[in-house]
């Protein structure tokens, strides 16, 4: 009808604003909770010494920075090694039980993070069941403990972030058109070759997302070291968390936090380039 | 002794504290000390008499019977005798953390919602110098005369006008003889590489730096800053070598409880109570000398029931009240004649009555500037 057409034409200019209006809450959120805090932390990181705070962050934490990222990277790799096959089996072979299996992956995470970390401490502690069994089987020496070692921290990190790896990989595997997989054998490709040439590339977005969801929080984690680590395993998160209260360290620790962020960003960009997933994500 | 403390509770509680404890002050600080976060009931230092008949006491953990204010015979007896209720909060976790949290309010003369705070001497000295605390009214506190001589008239509070000790203890070494393979007599013994990653030290500057100073052959009471720096360097060296499993405050007992730490710089009373759960733990005062600490009661500015607080101190300074309390908590009572009200076991307990002739030093109050410098160095060496 004519009336409708004319009214649509009238509305058009204001409609152009609708997407922007819809973005307002997000923009306000990001401004208040991201941009402003980042700006004030940036300012703080330049107090008492300016850019030397950044130089000092690298020299003072010569061991801390590589250790933090080493642990985060190790946990990410372990999560991939454990999570990919798990996601694959659920997506490809789960059948009717898919939802149940996914629920089982997530179920332990209904318990709070803190309680799970404490539970690991109780399980792995020197007087805990795991250590006692390993002691009595003479797999580890009587005076060797599990808690307070790098493997314990990496293990706890891997445990805590495993679902964040499994779920995105599952989603991208689940999305794959099964007909593409049937083509592989038709063209005389082995199962492995089909996986390598078809399944794996198509699941890269999930792998990429899972790796980010694991690596980034693992890099900033401090709870796991607090409970299953010791002073020798401390990560950037521990140093910042324990000392940010103390005023004199705030500029240096702000600088350290930016260094942490910069390294994560660089790592992510590098990883994206390596996987060639820029256009996929 | 009737101490019973579930250490597992402490692990959980300690963990939760660790998380909330660091976020709250950080948030407060980040907001630039917002007034709304203050628990103060109003400014002013007016002396009001028991308006609502209660006092709030900020004290250290394990400083009351069974670490449980609700069943403490001392608090019950006090309330029965005076009608004043005690809101007892064992939330002083460290001199520095407590001060970092409340100094923004104290420095403005605002109350912190407490009538008594208990802090170690070097920090108490700072509170007095900064005017964060109020002088006692002697008429409300006649039992102050029962203070033992060695703690009367400290240089930083002549006449004990602002502070009296709550408890006295020593910093010694707690260890498991079977695990370390023998007896330990000095701090150097626990720096042996064979104990790598099995030792914990305290995150408290005076106690840890002082103990290392004694081990290096210095007298910490002289307050020589260069000697303190040497001690800090020694701590850093050992930490870089991976000697320390933990450098923490009150939570160090968790790792002794689980047996993961084999030797720890420890506060005497903690080990006395831990011994009930972990009988194979030993406690020794280093032969070269041990640090002794005194935690002092003071009335902060803005206290709403100053007279009630003085009444509480007066009650604690009666030897017949002090004896049983200190036998229960296993610290040294600062009250003359308190041991007359203890059992024979209590009288012989080295935690309560340290061996005669033990060399004990107290970390001295140093100037604010020197303390800040040492504190920064110590934190750098132990926490960063």
TrEMBL record, chain A:
Gene Ontology biological process: transmembrane transport
Domain called ABC transmembrane type-1: residue spans: 65-271
One cellular component (GO) term of this entry: plasma membrane
Recorded topology in the membrane: Multi-pass membrane protein
Cell compartment(s), UniProt: Cell membrane
Keyword Transport: yes
Keyword Cell membrane: yes
Membrane-spanning intervals of the chain: 20-39, 69-89, 101-124, 144-171, 253-272
Pfam families cross-referenced by the UniProt entry: BPD_transp_1
InterPro entries: MetI-like, MetI-like_sf
UniProt keyword list: Cell membrane, Membrane, Transmembrane, Transmembrane helix, Transport
UniProt main location, coarse: membrane
Family classification: Belongs to the binding-protein-dependent transport system permease family. CysTW subfamily.
Name of the protein in question: Unannotated protein
Automatic annotation (TrEMBL), chain B:
Coiled coil regions in record: none
Molecular function in Gene Ontology: polyamine binding
A family per Pfam: SBP_bac_8
Subcellular location, principal: periplasm
Gene3D superfamilies attached to this UniProt entry: Periplasmic binding protein-like II (3.40.190.10)
Gene Ontology BP, a term: polyamine transport
Organism: freshwater metagenome
Localization terms from the record: Periplasm
Protein name listed in UniProt: Unannotated protein
Keywords: Periplasm, Signal, Transport
GO cellular component: periplasmic space
């Amino acid at each position: 009808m004519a009336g409708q057409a004319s009214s649509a034409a009238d509305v058009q200019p204001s409609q152009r604003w609708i997407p922007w209006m819809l973005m307002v809450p997000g923009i306000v959120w990001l401004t208040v909770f991201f941009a402003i805090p980042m700006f004030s932390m940036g300012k703080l990181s330049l107090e008492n010494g300016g850019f030397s705070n950044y130089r000092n962050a690298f020299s003072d934490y010569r061991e801390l920075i590589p250790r933090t990222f080493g642990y985060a990277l190790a946990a990410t790799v372990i999560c991939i090694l454990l999570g990919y096959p798990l996601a694959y089996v659920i997506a490809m072979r789960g059948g009717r039980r898919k939802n149940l299996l996914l629920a089982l992956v997530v179920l332990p995470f209904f318990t709070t993070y803190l309680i799970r970390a404490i539970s690991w401490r109780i399980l792995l502690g020197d007087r805990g069941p795991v250590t006692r069994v390993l002691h009595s089987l003479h797999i580890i020496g009587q005076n060797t403990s599990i808690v307070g070692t790098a493997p314990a921290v990496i293990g706890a990190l891997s445990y805590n972030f495993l679902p964040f790896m499994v779920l995105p990989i599952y989603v991208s595997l689940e999305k794959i058109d099964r007909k593409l997989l049937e083509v592989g054998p038709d063209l005389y490709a082995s199962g492995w070759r089909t996986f390598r040439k078809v399944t794996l590339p198509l699941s890269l977005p999930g792998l990429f997302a899972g790796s980010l969801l694991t690596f980034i929080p693992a890099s900033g984690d401090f709870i796991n070291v607090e409970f299953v680590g010791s002073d020798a395993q401390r990560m950037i998160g521990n140093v910042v968390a324990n000392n940010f209260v103390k005023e004199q360290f705030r500029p240096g620790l702000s600088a350290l936090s930016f260094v942490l962020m910069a390294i994560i960003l660089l790592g992510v960009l590098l990883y994206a380039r390596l996987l060639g997933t820029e256009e996929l994500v | 002794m009737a101490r019973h403390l579930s250490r597992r509770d402490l692990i959980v509680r300690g963990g939760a504290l660790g998380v909330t404890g660091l976020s709250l002050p950080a948030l407060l600080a980040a907001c630039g000390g917002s007034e709304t976060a203050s628990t103060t009931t109003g400014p002013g230092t007016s002396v009001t008499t028991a308006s609502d008949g209660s006092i709030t006491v900020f004290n250290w953990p394990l400083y009351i019977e069974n670490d449980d204010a609700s069943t403490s015979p001392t608090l019950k007896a006090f309330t029965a005798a005076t009608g004043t209720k005690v809101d007892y909060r064992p939330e002083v976790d460290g001199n520095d953390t407590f001060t970092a949290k409340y100094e923004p309010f104290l420095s403005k003369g605002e109350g912190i919602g407490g009538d008594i705070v208990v802090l170690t001497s070097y920090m108490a000295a700072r509170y007095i110098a900064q005017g964060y605390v109020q002088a006692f009214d002697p008429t409300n506190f006649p039992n102050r005369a029962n203070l033992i001589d060695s703690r009367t008239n400290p240089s930083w509070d002549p006449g004990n006008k602002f502070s009296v000790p709550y408890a006295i203890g020593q910093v010694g070494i707690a260890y498991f003889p079977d695990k370390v393979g023998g007896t330990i007599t000095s701090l150097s013994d626990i720096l042996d590489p064979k104990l790598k990653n099995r030792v914990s030290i305290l995150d408290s500057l005076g106690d840890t730096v002082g103990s290392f100073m004694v081990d290096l052959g210095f007298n910490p009471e002289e307050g020589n800053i260069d000697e303190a720096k040497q001690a800090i360097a020694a701590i850093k060296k050992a930490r870089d070598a991976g000697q320390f499993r933990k450098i923490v405050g009150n939570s160090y007992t968790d790792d002794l409880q689980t047996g993961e730490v084999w030797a720890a710089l420890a506060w005497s009373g903690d080990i006395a109570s831990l011994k009930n759960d972990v009988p194979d733990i030993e406690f020794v005062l280093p032969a070269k000398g041990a640090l002794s600490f005194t935690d002092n009661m003071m009335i902060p500015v803005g206290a709403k029931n100053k007279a009630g607080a003085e009444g509480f101190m007066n009650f604690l300074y009666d030897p017949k009240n002090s004896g049983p309390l200190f036998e229960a908590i296993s610290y040294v009572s600062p009250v003359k004649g308190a041991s007359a009200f203890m059992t024979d076991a209590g009288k012989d307990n080295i935690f309560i009555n340290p061996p005669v002739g033990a060399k004990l030093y107290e970390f001295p109050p140093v100037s604010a500037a020197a303390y800040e410098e040492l504190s920064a160095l110590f934190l750098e060496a132990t926490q960063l």
